[in-house]
Amino acid sequence: MNEVVIRGALRYGEGDPVDVLVADGVIAEIGERGSLGAGDAAEVIEADGMVLLPGFVDLHTHLREPGREDTETIESGSAAAAIGGYTAVFAMANTDPVADNAVVVEHVWRRGRETGLVDVHPVGAVTVGLEGKRLAEMGTMAGSAAGVRVFSDDGHCVADPLLMRRALEYSTALGVLVAQHAEEPRLTSGAQAHEGERAARLGYAGWPASAEESIVARDCVLARHAGARLHVCHVSTTGTVDVLGWAKGLGIAVSAEVTPHHLLLTDERLASFDPVNKVNPPLRAEADVERMRVALAEGVIDCVATDHAPHAEQDKDCEWAAARPGMLGLQTALSIVVATMVRTGLLDWRGVARVMSERPAEIAGLPDQGRPLEVGEPANLALVDPDAEWTVHGPELASISANTPYEGMRLPAVVSATLLRGRITAREGKIG
Ligand SMILES: NC(=O)N[C@@H](CC(=O)O)C(=O)O
Ligand SMILES: [Zn+2]
Ligand SMILES: [Zn+2]
């Protein structure tokens, strides 16, 4: 029998320390500290002073397999996820070939299962080839062994309102979720950075806030009339928060995510000319970052999603305009959330559980993730040392790529252990 005793942890960082016995994939017993002896077979995790949370769920990950295994694989990305405290990730469809059919989504799903470090849920493309012209066979992907429940053309916006309307209507019939990369392409053609003073001074074409906000507003209206749910990827502007607040106030079924980098970094980074800071949507202004934090604390933005986007060295170590957008996120997400939300007093550990685990699990409809830390619940767990610190070094991360914007930074909080259905998938920064 696979047994683990976690000794002396604080559930959600609250109350008295407890011992937690994990057996047969579930939380079997919870008692006061020192009450649960380790059985013969049990592995013991000494967790004095540590915070026990439900395992994190990432609604937005790029694992690059199939097609760009030189930058990330399902195995390497799963390792990064497990080390980062994740027990489930949603792998975006912008692979090569695109995940727009049952064969590709089943491949991703099966490779995830074989790897076994984290539940890998493939996201299906909304349109064939992410081309925005014809709807993909959403029903076939939903009905496949992969059981696809989230659809997105991420990397591209479903810009055609008629296609988006149809996708939302189908999604309701299928009981699945459409996640939109909100970027009006007519407003971002040639864009290199957040439209503002800094980009103007450097001569970069701007990516205006209105390109995001106009699509979010349009999609909320479409979702309302279709009676559909809508999820907004990587929210980055104050105006989008205003639109979300308006839509939620009307009872429109919209949810939204913010990335760790949009909670911390601004377009001040442009001054470095380092394309590691190039990302879609772009790093925005200080006022936007401040608003992201408050909106996440207040629930207008529901959750954190990494938009983990590995890229090869040659696609990042080049001139700004030629570089691909995107940055790593899985192993640094918790630390950035602690730095921006916990250390600032905006969220307590219950709040961290809500935005990193419970809400994303609810949004995607995962019944066994983001569950309460109670006896009988599945043992999908993240154990966090809140007082430890670490220094980020890209090449030391589990990802094949190293494009982290946090290189050399000292960050708070370390994921000490991750358990997937009672099995230790990562411990002290290493697999298993
Ligand atoms: N975020 C990014 O800058 N890049 C993502 C695509 C995306 O999320 O839009 C990628 O796939 O590299
Ligand atoms: Zn995107
Ligand atoms: Zn993305």
TrEMBL record:
Entry's Gene Ontology BP terms: 'de novo' UMP biosynthetic process; purine nucleobase catabolic process
Domain Dihydroorotase catalytic: 49-237
Residues involved in substrate binding: H62, L63, R64, N94, N280, H311, P325, G326
Catalytic activity line of the entry: (S)-dihydroorotate + H2O = N-carbamoyl-L-aspartate + H(+)
Matching PROSITE patterns: DIHYDROOROTASE_2
Pfam families named among the record's database cross-references: DHOase
UniProt key word Metal-binding: yes
Keyword Translocase: no
Binding site for Zn(2+) 1: H60, H62, D154, D307
Catalytic-site annotation from UniProt: D307
Cofactor: Zn(2+)
Enzyme category, top tier: hydrolase
Keywords, sorted A to Z: Hydrolase, Metal-binding, Pyrimidine biosynthesis, Zinc
EC code(s) of this entry: 3.5.2.3
Listed pathway(s): Pyrimidine metabolism; UMP biosynthesis via de novo pathway; (S)-dihydroorotate from bicarbonate: step 3/3
GO cellular component, one term: cytoplasm
CDD domains: DHOase_IIa
SUPFAM superfamilies recorded: Composite domain of metallo-dependent hydrolases (SSF51338), Metallo-dependent hydrolases (SSF51556)
Molecular-function GO terms, alphabetical: allantoinase activity; dihydroorotase activity; zinc ion binding
Function: Catalyzes the reversible cyclization of carbamoyl aspartate to dihydroorotate.
NCBIfam families: PRK09357.1-1 (NF006836), pyrC_multi (TIGR00857)
Name of the molecule in the record: Dihydroorotase
Originating species: Prauserella marina
Lineage: Bacteria, Bacillati, Actinomycetota, Actinomycetes, Pseudonocardiales
